[in-house]
Amino acid sequence: MQYIEGSRENVLILINKIQQDDRHYDFKIIAGGPINQRHFQNWSMQYQCFADGELEQMLNCKQIANNNDAVMRAIKLIKLFSPRPTH
What is the pLDDT of residues 1-27, one digit of tens each? Predict the structure, then answer.
């Protein structure tokens, strides 16, 4: 799963690149639209692999696509993998 933020133009350019990249498959946009504030402005990219059905189980839903509650849960889940500042 990827959560992409930025200007509409930059997001569309990135989505096009992802769709053209053979390393990405089964591409689906599960939600989109403007946001009030960025959730991950200090991030670049991070990779986390989930087994089939694992993400749906963690989000407590059968389907993520077009499910606003699942999308908000996914954002919270992604934040768990956020790099923590080291002091």
Answer: 778 888 899 899 999 999 999 888 788
Q: Model confidence over 29-81: pLDDT tens digits? A: 877 888 888 877 777 666 667 777 777 777 777 766 667 777 777 777 777 76
Domain ranges of the chain: 8-80
Q: Would you state the structure tokens that stand for residue 62, as one six-digit string?
A: 């059968």
**What is the distance between the alpha carbons of residues 43 and 35, in angstroms, rounded to a whole number?**
17
Cα–Cα distance, 52 to 74 (Å, whole number): 15
CA-CA distance, 27 to 15, in Å (whole number)?
10
Question: DSSP string covering 26-58, please?
Answer: S---------SS-S-TT---------TTHHHHH
Tokens of 43: 């991030």
Contact 40, 81 (CB under 8 A): no
